[in-house]
Write a structure and sequence with these properties.
4 strands; 29% helix
Length: 92
């Protein structure tokens, strides 16, 4: 799984590398054991502070539910079973 990094200013400053490392560790250790085949392709929003997570087909919904439960969440966003969360292309 590849991830997208989103932090908040409410938490201590973290480098992107630290957030990626922590988010990846939580993803593999805490989240993946709970994933089902129906979760493949859904977004996984993870709070790297509390290790809480939300899964939804919509990235905004997953993050909003997580922020509702943990207003100061430092979020790491992944897409279950995918190699990337989103694809970006440069067009000239």
């Amino acid at each position: 799984m590849e991830q997208f990094v989103m932090g908040t200013t409410a938490t201590l400053p973290r480098s992107s590398e630290d957030l990626a490392r922590i988010g990846n560790e939580i993803l593999h250790r805490v989240v993946e054991p709970h994933l089902t085949p129906q979760d493949i392709g859904k977004f996984v929003a993870i709070d790297v502070v509390s290790q809480a997570f939300e899964i939804d087909e919509d990235d905004y919904t997953a993050m909003s539910r997580l922020f509702t439960r943990h207003p100061n969440a430092d979020i790491w966003l992944a897409c279950a079973g995918q190699t990337t969360t989103c694809r970006m292309r440069f067009h000239q």
